[in-house]
Amino acid sequence: MKGFVGVTDNQWYEFLSQQPGIDEVNFWQPGGSRIFQSLKPGDPFFFKLHSPENFIVGVGFFAHSTILPISIAWSAFGTKNGVNSVSEMRRRTEKYRRSRPSPLEDYKIGCILLTQPLFFGRKDWVSVPPDFSLNIVQGKTYDLTSGHGLRLWEQIEARMQTRPDLEKQLRVAEAEARYGVPALVQPRLGQGSFRVLVTDVYERRCAITREKTLPALEAAHIRPFSENGPNRVENGLLLRSDIH
Is domain 2-179 classified as CATH 2.30.40.10? Predict the structure, then answer.
């Protein structure tokens, strides 16, 4: 089992850690040049603050990664992007981009969709592993079954005990002891992650008309969400909004 220590914008952590009951977050990457491929669905993703705050301050579970226009990322996740507005999101992403886009450009950003996030209070912050170089800009992958990775995972597990809804993830340690190689369960998707996954599974085209203009497409539940239809790709169709 792998985990990834991702370097985050400190304001992203500060904003989201104050929001109760969040079921998903978008860990955005300002460049939008490549899709994150370091984890499998269900693997843990750890939030590390920028230096000099060299601590891991939370964890989420990887669901999907993609590249989206910033307007669609805002539409899908809203404040779960770690900001109050799309204009603030643009200011924050443009701070880290190599070239400054025009005010009207709907530029693309990388999106790492994480479910069941847990943010730690300062007393529970975890020191980064000793082999995590402070020169790392984006992050580093760890094997969570041995060495520094295992020690990190043990510390994170102890903090996860405060969240009953993470019980299934906590069973990893037991599964490892009994059966060998551990495997995390598939993450429970929020509405934003459901929308993005269905969009990508249907290759960003309406299932009926083949329309490919992203703002015109909607992820529809086959069994309605209001009737306990799950946020699962198998229960989704990508449809042009008027067809929906």
Answer: no
